[in-house]
Write a structure and sequence with these properties.
It is an enzyme of class 2 (transferase). Belongs to the protein kinase superfamily. Ser/Thr protein kinase family. It comes from Rubus argutus. Its EC number is 2.7.11.1. It is found in: Membrane. The protein is α+β, with helices and mostly antiparallel strands. It folds into 5 domains: 129 residues, Agglutinin, subunit A; 141 residues, Agglutinin, subunit A; 108 residues, Hepatocyte Growth Factor (3-Layer(bba) Sandwich); 86 residues, Phosphorylase Kinase, domain 1; 197 residues, Transferase(Phosphotransferase), domain 1 (Orthogonal Bundle). Helices cover 23% and strands 26% of the residues. The chain is built from 17 helices and 45 strands. The strands form 11 sheets. A 6-stranded mixed beta sheet has the order 38-42-43-41-40-39, sandwiched between helices. Strands 3, 4, 5, 6 and 7 form a 5-stranded antiparallel beta sheet that branches. Strands 31-35-26-27-37 form a 5-stranded mixed beta sheet, with no helix packed on it. The longest helix has 21 residues. It is globular, with a radius of gyration of 30 Å. It binds 2-acetamido-2-deoxy-beta-D-glucopyranose (12 copies).
């Protein structure tokens, strides 16, 4: 359809512009719309209602945005009448009967859906400018409206109520009801639910949080949520969000997406692509049910999430991960002597949420193994340190699997002994979410030469070697050699990433000026700019970094913003927003109560326990950067000034992604070793012009740990000691450390409780020395460091 001529030719004079542009049409009693020939249009032509194709000769009656035209099949559908029963392409119709009932018929007058309304006056069907399809009585009374029965999309002013919910589609091409829904629960709280064929569970807000912990109120039972065209979504349970582009009057929708994420989308004009302006779940692997049973999800920012079967298991459906994996020809059923038949495969950092038999506190690994061997239904167990002891969690089912370096527990998978050498079977990014494909389309708008998208793919394909730095060089080079075209492309890219993040918003300069009371209180100053303390309009205390504007183009700023926004970890500094306005470039971060590690180190307030925790937390943050992102993000400037401490002295790594963009003035050629890092913390690779890998961060981390141990900034030590090379360097370093550790400790030992923590101290020294090995292959990975620190094992 689409290009099909309109029945209503009353307004033919208007057709000079375009065949659909200025037509509106009401359906009166006794008339019908059919698949072949008609659709309704809202008076402003933004929405259409009618039949649209959902498959071979299959149609649904629904409402969609008129642009792009239906013939492209890329329409944005906002409502469907009985999505689960598409009708035949011929002789199906929707009729407004004389008794006031609106009925959708399939071929042979088979009723697929009806409005169940009655009216003896003359009613008519009308599509309003809001996208609401209404059945109006003669007196203007609304007998029925599509807003009262949403499908998977909310429009501005359309309320989600106690009686309605958004249900995702089954897939991108199948509009049938899927497994994910957004609804008001019995406790008046908005939630996201996975309701799969075998199990169901709530995954948002985080299921282990009580409502009030998630910032929700359970008291108001009016159960109503709406949003406006400026991007303010608010609900009676106190859940309020502003989209990143809040304030602009745009076309907007909130949609329960097929991948289980709730997203806000916006676009400027009718034909533009939609961009994500908010999403509920930052870490898409946390969405339940995506990879099915016996598998786990890993997340790669450049390509989305990926499912993999656990070792020994294989995929059930070759095309649909929601079916998960099943045992590849073995069974775990009861055996008389399980010790002889089964063993365990150790899988670090894999979380399997839920489905525990029970928790067994104070269980050693061997006790836990024995327990699981003898529990016939035990498929695996978690062995996890918490509350000062190891705890054992035998699992009845393996679901909601998620591999993340941030998870401290280890999974031990029970398998027949013959299969203990099995490895995970990876999927080829089949779960990669819709967002990625949308971004692809956006990039193509720009100059295809020098596409960043290509760089990204290239990067992840190579496993992330040298990528960031090359990326940056490329970035500068291209920026210098080309003009505005590149800028707008970068901006598109940046926005693309930005969209993927949530909690973000764009601030105006005057807002931030007000928040900082005219940039009054300076709390830090670095190469890239000055940091001020500010209080946002919602009372949150923020650190607002004003970048040196002269160096910072809009696209660069957005690129930086996007990089940070994409990454979320408790040991990485969180970004709340940004401002790009004329010459002004500002970034809004969470405020860190205790400033930088550098400052607190010099003031000697940190005892050994805290120092250990800081070393561990920093390692976790870096491990996340390196591994979750497949080495895509190297920090390249790890130093105490970039490790910030919150009110509990939890460390958060700051400034990743930023420094490389700021130091561009120093960049003279593609010799990037001159632009990265800080003297004293830089790995020998920089000096020797060797490939830059994540091990440069490991090296810098090692130096930071040494600094925490000795209280001395290694840059103050003999220059050769850090930047020489070879065995002598290491010897001198060890000597230097030992000197300070044994005798003249710069800090009074007793005061800092060093005596009690001797074991931990030794581990820190050992870790630090391994990290600063000259040979980068001899250095441990960041996640290995986390393991060593967690388990005190070396
Ligand atoms: C269609 O219905 C709307 C709302 O009831 C009314 O304002 C408009 O005049 C009608 N248009 C036509 C062409 O009947
Ligand atoms: C529709 O979208 C797909 C990708 O989803 C794209 O490949 C195709 O070109 C689009 N078609 C039109 C006509 O825009
Ligand atoms: C329909 O007609 C009946 C009686 O003929 C009347 O009682 C009723 O109020 C009418 N309903 C409407 C919606 O006009
Ligand atoms: C769409 O999904 C439903 C529910 O899973 C299924 O019954 C139906 O066959 C699917 N339709 C198509 C065209 O694949
Ligand atoms: C957002 O909407 C809610 C409810 O409509 C309103 O109370 C609130 O003031 C709005 N916030 C902003 C910033 O407009
Ligand atoms: C409950 O929420 C609704 C909608 O947000 C609001 O209008 C109403 O005032 C609230 N009631 C109470 C008692 O807070
Ligand atoms: C844990 O178990 C060991 C030996 O089984 C016991 O000595 C220790 O006191 C237990 N610890 C706690 C906290 O219960
Ligand atoms: C083990 O699983 C089987 C089937 O999955 C079930 O019938 C049985 O009750 C389970 N046993 C225990 C102890 O949970
Ligand atoms: C598993 O691998 C190890 C070494 O890689 C080998 O010695 C052992 O025989 C293998 N076991 C099985 C059951 O294949
Ligand atoms: C891309 O580069 C090729 C060769 O380097 C050139 O022929 C082509 O015109 C370029 N395309 C655009 C859109 O600049
Ligand atoms: C850590 O350093 C910050 C910044 O200098 C300072 O405000 C804070 O008080 C220090 N912490 C302690 C416990 O002294
Ligand atoms: C990069 O810089 C180093 C020292 O700063 C120099 O030795 C080396 O030759 C330079 N490499 C290139 C490719 O310019």
């Amino acid at each position: 359809m689409g290009t099909v001529p309109f029945l209503c030719l009353v307004l033919v004079s208007a057709l000079t512009f375009s065949f659909t542009s200025s037509t509106s049409l009401n359906l009166s009693m006794g008339s019908s719309l059919s698949v072949e020939n008609t659709e309704l249009m809202s008076p402003d032509a933004v929405f259409s209602a009618g039949f649209f194709p959902v498959g071979e000769n299959a149609f649904c009656f629904g409402i969609w945005f008129s642009e792009p035209p239906t013939s492209t099949r890329n329409i944005t559908v906002v409502w469907i009448a009985n999505r689960d029963m598409p009708v035949n392409g011929q002789r199906s119709k929707i009729t407004l009967h004389k008794d006031g009932n609106l009925v959708l018929y399939d071929i042979d007058r088979y009723t697929v859906w009806s409005s169940n309304t009655v009216s003896n006056s003359s009613a008519h069907l009308h599509l309003r400018d809001t996208g609401n399809l209404v059945l109006l009585a003669a007196d203007g009374l609304v007998l029925w409206e599509s807003f009262a029965s949403p499908t998977d999309t909310l429009l501005p002013q359309q309320a989600l109520t106690r009686n309605t919910k958004l249900v995702s589609s089954r897939s991108l091409t199948n509009y049938s009801s899927g497994f994910y829904s957004f609804y008001f629960d019995n406790d008046n709280t908005l939630r996201l639910l996975y309701d799969g064929p075998e199990v169901s569970s709530i995954y948002w807000p985080d299921p282990w949080l009580l409502s009030w912990q998630a910032g929700r109120s359970t008291y108001n039972n009016s159960r109503i949520a709406t949003f406006d065209s400026l991007g303010n979504f608010s609900s009676s349970d106190n859940f309020i969000v502003w989209t990143i582009d809040y304030g602009a009057k745009l076309q907007r929708i909130f949609k329960m997406d097929v991948d289980g994420n709730l997203r806000g989308y916006s676009r400027k004009g009718q034909g533009d692509a939609w961009s994500v302006s908010w999403e509920a779940i930052l870490q898409p692997c946390k969405i339940h049910g995506i990879c099915g049973a016996n598998s786990y999800c890993s997340y790669i920012p450049s390509s989305g999430r990926k499912c993999s079967c656990l070792p020994g298991y294989e995929m059930i459906s070759k095309t649909d991960w929601s079916y998960g994996c099943h045992p590849a020809g073995f069974d775990l059923s009861c055996k008389s002597s399980p010790e002889e038949v089964f063993g365990f495969v150790h899988l670090p950092h894999i979380e399997m949420f839920g489905y525990d038999y029970a928790v067994y506190p104070n269980f050693t690994l061997d006790q836990c193994k024995s327990l699981c061997l003898h529990l016939c239904n035990c498929t695996a167990f978690h062995h996890k340190f918490g509350n000062g002891q190891y705890q054992c969690y035998p699992k009845a089912q393996l679901r909601n699997g998620y591999r993340t370096p941030g998870f401290d527990g280890d999974l031990y998978l029970k398998l027949p002994k013959a299969l203990l050498n099995a490895t995970s079977k990876d999927g080829n990014n089949m779960c990669s979410n819709k967002l990625t494909s949308q971004l692809d389309r956006r990039y193509n708008k720009g100059n295809p030469n020098g596409s960043i998208e290509f760089m990204l793919k290239f990067a992840s394909g190579l496993g992330g070697l040298e990528v960031v730095c090359i990326f940056i060089v490329w970035f500068f080079v291209t920026r210098r050699t080309s003009g505005g075209q590149q800028d707008s492309e970068l901006e598109l890219l940046a926005q693309g990433y930005l969209q993927a993040a949530t909690g973000f918003r764009r601030f105006t300069y005057s807002e931030l000026k007000k928040a900082t009371e005219g940039f009054k209180e300076e709390i830090g100053r670095g190469g890239g700019g000055t940091v001020y303390k500010g209080i946002l309009s919602d009372q949150r205390v923020a650190a607002i970094k004003q970048l040196n504007a002269a160096n910072q183009g809009e696209a660069e700023c957005l690129a930086e913003v996007s990089l940070i926004g994409k990454l979320y970890h408790m040991n990485l500094i969180e970004m709340w927003g940004y401002c790009v306005e004329d010459k002004h470039r500002l970034l809004v971060y969470e405020y860190m109560e205790h400033g930088s590690l550098a400052k607190n180190l010099s003031s000697n307030v940190l005892d050994w326990k805290k120092r250990y925790e800081i070393a561990l937390g920093t390692a976790k943050g870096l491990a996340y950067l390196h591994e979750e992102c497949l080495e895509w993000v190297l920090h390249c400037d790890v130093k105490p000034q970039n490790i910030l401490l919150d009110s509990d002295y939890n460390p958060k790594v700051a400034d990743f992604g930023l420094s490389k963009l700021l130091n561009r003035g120093e960049l003279s050629s593609s010799n990037f070793s001159t632009i990265r890092g800080t003297r004293g913390y830089m790995a020998p690779e920089w000096v020797h012009n060797m490939p830059i890998t994540s091990k440069v961060d490991v090296y810098s981390y090692g130096i930071v740990v040494l600094e925490m141990l000795t209280g001395t900034n290694p840059t103050e030590c003999n220059v050769q000691c850090v930047e020489g090379g070879g065995e002598t360097q290491k010897k001198m370093m060890i000597e230097w450390v030992m000197e300070r550790m044994n005798g003249e400790f710069p800090n009074a030992e007793n005061k800092m409780g060093a005596e009690n923590e001797k074991g931990k101290l030794e581990i820190l020294v050992e870790v630090a020395l391994q990290c600063i090995e000259d040979d980068r292959d001899a250095r441990p990975s960041m996640s290995r460091v986390v393991e060593m620190l967690l388990h005190h094992e070396l």
